Amino acid sequence: MGFFVSRHLGLLLCNIAIMKRFLLFFHLVVIGIVCFYSCEKQSFPLPPISINSKYPNLTETDRGLAIVWYEPIIGGYALKWSEFNGRSWSKPVIVTAGEEYFINWADFPSIFYNGKNHFVVHWLEKNGNGPYDYVVKVSQSLDRGRNWSSPIIPHRDKKLGEHGFVSFFNVNDNKVGLVWLDGRNMMGEGHENEYGQMNLYSTTIDKNGFLGEEILLDDRVCECCPTSVIKIENDILVAYRDRSLSEIRNINLIRWNNSAWQKPHSLHNDNWKIAGCPVNGPKLAVTGNNVAAVWYTSLNENPIIYISFSKDGGNKFNSPIRLDNGNPIGRVDCIWIDSDRVLVSWMEMGEKSTNIIFSTVDIENHKGSSKIVTQILSGRSSGHPVISRYRQNIFLAWTEEDKIQSKWIHVN
User: Fold this and answer.
1) What whole-number distance in Å separates Cα of residue 401 and Cα of residue 391?
2) How far apart are CA 47 and CA 135, in angstroms?
3) Among 249, 238, 254, 320, which residue's Cα sits nearest to residue 279?
4) How far is it, in rounded angstroms, from Cα 47 to Cα 386?
5) Which tens digit of pLDDT belongs to each residue from 362-397?
6) How far apart are the first and last CA of the chain?
């Protein structure tokens, strides 16, 4: 009798264990399905941008992120901005409108958040009859974008020629700095002709619009590659594409160490010799003392996307590793998604389409698998795709033929 009781009890316990396993499995399946669809669906709203808008740019804020873009109006274009606060986008506000803008796929406006309610925006305006006669203009808002100051020109050369590819950085709560490519010494109407040298300059602007000293950082740089700047504690690190006398166009770094600008030096000796500007600049990103640098190069017509890390605030970078899948176009961006990992975006030609690619890399050079996040037009009309972050969600924006497109991508 005891045997049969024991046997039935054992079967009952076994069935209970099987049922528990089934319920656990069912629970995990349900969680997986919910997670799959919640990760794939549109988790946040998209910005209120009209048709025929062009060339977005992004910045992170203390509330979320902000976007700036060109939008057509009667008689021309307006430069608008909006902020995402974690729930919704603010009503677009016009920063400037109706001017003779220099609207370019590679050299587009930027917005920079300097803390509290201080925002800074830059754009380009024509100032002569030549195709590349344009100036940088900067406007500030001290009330979180509701009102914008009269624009000022940060460079003081008053010469016709190219001025652009601006990158902002924080100096303090009252002041921002910026670097830009300056063509005051190119002395010609041609864009790629050997008339003179493109320069790299820097200055500062305080909240009252007063300009600091105008400083020449490098007297010979690549003519039309974007710049990138980060702040590391009290230091500033600038990345840009150099141009040697023999036409080697490595990525250079130059550092402000809280007392003076140091001499430029190469991030890595790519030894890419090219007679014209490739219109492909580097991108820096920082978290704590960890710095990531991403760039495009093409030695011997072999296009490559590289990433290199520094663990000491950008003083020394490790040997770069390759990220692309074999046929990149470039136009890189990158952002830290936690203390150890960077998300990198770039454009690449696939077998049947041109794609925006995402890939994660950790600071020990362990590369995750790359992922196509969207297809994109391969030409210049697509502009330069840009990314920003809100918590564990990446916001991606780019330009199609008739409108700015954007999407949210959840990152695990």
Assistant:
1) 30
2) 29
3) 249
4) 14
5) 999 999 989 999 999 888 888 999 999 999 999 999
6) 57
Which range among 215-219, 351-355, 400-404 has the greatest average pLDDT?
215-219
**Are residues 161 and 132 in contact, defined by beta-carbon separation less than 8 angstroms?**
yes
What pLDDT shows up at residue 188?
53
Distance CA 145, CA 80 (A): 10
pLDDT per residue as tens digits for the range 256-295: 998 899 999 999 999 999 999 999 999 999 999 999 999 9
Measured between alpha carbons, how far is 101 from 71 in angstroms, rounded to an integer?
Answer: 12
> Which segments within 20-159 are labelled E, that is strand?
54-60, 65-73, 76-84, 93-97, 110-113, 119-126, 134-141
Say which amino acid occupies 235: D
In 173-272 the beta strands, taken as DSSP E runs, fall at: 175-182, 198-206, 215-221, 228-232, 235-241, 251-256, 265-266
pLDDT of residue 21: 52
Burial pattern 347-373, b for ≥16 Cβ within 10 A else e, equals: bbeeeeebbbbbbbbebeeeeeebeeb
* CA 64/CA 357 separation, integer angstroms: 23
- pLDDT tens digits for 299-343? 999 999 999 999 999 999 999 999 999 999 999 999 999 999 999
Distance of CA 384 to the CA centre of its chain: 9
Residue 326 structure tokens? 């074999």
Return the H-helix or E-strand segment holding 306: strand 304-310
Residue 6 has pLDDT above 70, yes or no: no
Q: Which residues contact 66 (CB under 8 A, 6 or more apart)?
A: 58, 59, 81, 82, 83, 84, 111, 113, 119, 145
pLDDT of residue 201 exceeding 90, the answer is yes
How many angstroms separate the CA atoms of 353 and 361, rounded?
Answer: 24
The model's pLDDT over 39-95, given as tens digits with 9 standing for 90+, comes to 444 579 999 999 999 999 999 999 999 999 999 999 899 999 999 999 999 999 999
Task: Measure the CA–CA gap between 393 and 39, rounded to whole angstroms.
Answer: 10
| Residue 353 confidence (pLDDT) | 92
Tokens of 222: 């690549």
Backbone phi, then psi, for 304, in 5-degree steps?
Answer: -140, 145
Phi, psi of 54 (to 5 degrees): -145, 150
